[in-house]
Amino acid sequence: MAEGPTITTIAERAGVSIASVSRVLNGLPTRQETVRKVMAAAEELGYVRNAVARSLKSRRTHQVAFAMADVGNPAYLAMLRQIQPVLKAAGYRIVLHSTDAVVADEIDVLHSLGERYVDGLIMSPLRVTGRHLQMLATARAPVVIIGSVPEGTPVDNVRADSRTGVKLAIDHLHALGRRRIGMVNGPPDTVPGAARGAAYIEALEACGLPYDENLVQIGDFYRAEGGRAVAALLDRVPDLDALMCANDLIALGALDVLRAAGRRVPQDVAVVGMDDTDLAAASWPSLTSVSLGSAERGKAAAELLLDRLQHGEREPRVVTVPPRLVVRASTTGEEEGGT
Amino acid sequence: MAEGPTITTIAERAGVSIASVSRVLNGLPTRQETVRKVMAAAEELGYVRNAVARSLKSRRTHQVAFAMADVGNPAYLAMLRQIQPVLKAAGYRIVLHSTDAVVADEIDVLHSLGERYVDGLIMSPLRVTGRHLQMLATARAPVVIIGSVPEGTPVDNVRADSRTGVKLAIDHLHALGRRRIGMVNGPPDTVPGAARGAAYIEALEACGLPYDENLVQIGDFYRAEGGRAVAALLDRVPDLDALMCANDLIALGALDVLRAAGRRVPQDVAVVGMDDTDLAAASWPSLTSVSLGSAERGKAAAELLLDRLQHGEREPRVVTVPPRLVVRASTTGEEEGGT
Question: Ranges for the HTH lacI-type domain (chains A, B) (predicted)?
Fold first, then answer.
């Protein structure tokens, strides 16, 4: 990878900053004099022979990359389902990366933008590290991040709002007359675990319900683990009348355990999941779940990227997709018609 | 798309067959004399200037395309989940196409192989038309088809075996003592509908059970439609004791309708689905389902393509992935532990 001229050697030769070279190579609007210097340096160094220079002329690969943490996760697939038609309609192919949420893999993807094999990138990292921010600041193609990035990061950004989502669920349970609302969460050292745990406490207080730490049980974001956490919680707090589960898989585990324990859902215990995956409608009783708008986030990201590709330089935008409570039988007892 | 020299004009100029030109442009082993003629003709016609010729030298784009009918269908996603790591480990990026099973879109994808934006293609068409076969015969990069192609088609081919799959299900129900086994199928003019309907009749006969056309109801491959078909079937044949459903969504509709009718599953009516999607394990009771090996088919397709990319010319191969019955509570009444 270290062969041939690099952005650094071109910057040195042209007597301009690396950022300027990056801007020129990205085809972003730049002062004419700078463009001239960079192009001259690039040609002197033989840079014209490689793929970057080729795409400098044609400017477009008609490809856009989508880097998701896990190709098996329904939330990312819901994004992909929306990203795909928007980009296809605009004449772009999608290059898919599954990074397994490994930071080094994500950095690789950002780094490889320098090869100009795509015109832009949509990335959905689980965590945004300092290394991410550094790469984003010098990315050689437009990037849209699905997830939260710090203020001032020079990329378009699409966010969910799980805090409001948890509040919607707790308000719904409270309105149904539930007063002993348990929370089954994933590990608090994950971004979603931390956010959802804090939101639960806030939402209880907003309803005027006392926070009781006995009502919180930590498990993991999987069905079996979630079920075990629910079993432990039921042992400790036999009179709980509702469960806020930090995702749908935990909620499915809750249904398993409540059924085995002879507790009726929702008559004895109402259950709410989160993410509104396909599994929520398939379960029985069907699961009330908080949608964090994966589909809408995917669509917004694709539209932001297209806008950036078509209109070039503008201020970075932040789009926050509001959550939505999808009410089903696990809280109201009324089964929908089959779908 | 009709500008500049084409494979046909090169073949004419070189005095060789179109297939030979295709082989040379694909970098497949070809007689030295033929390579020389084709390259000379290509250069005379100015073909060296375009992307095809460029990739002739570097030979590789390090990209492979996967064209699936529907990015929302869990069966294709199960394939993708397996294709992705195999190709990633070999240094390939995946370019994703969702064709919505529109033949013209699939033909476009095959046609665009001429642009050499990928080194190879895995395609999973719902139907294989004459136009497909014609394009496959002259494809400018290696192609693996997931689905059945006629004997002699010059591509690697990975197949499912839904016929044996239906037989596994019927044998299982028969072994459990079920004798009035209904079938809820999708439209018989679709490839899966036709195959599964015929397989049901065969499998009954192999068990020594009489075929009764009253036991068959046609619906569609969706939950609500499947449910309606089951309701009609129950009205007509109140004493049926088992249901073979042509996919998992139909089976979920069956569970809805049986529950509403007060029929216990599996005590009164045992239910089997097909495809073994994630929904099968999420439903209650969890669903016995025939896996047609989507994951294994994806893996096999990726491995066949890699082998072809690494070793070039060899006879086309056919891999048939055997089906597998995944037994859950909807036939045996025994719930698994949560997973």
Answer: 5-58
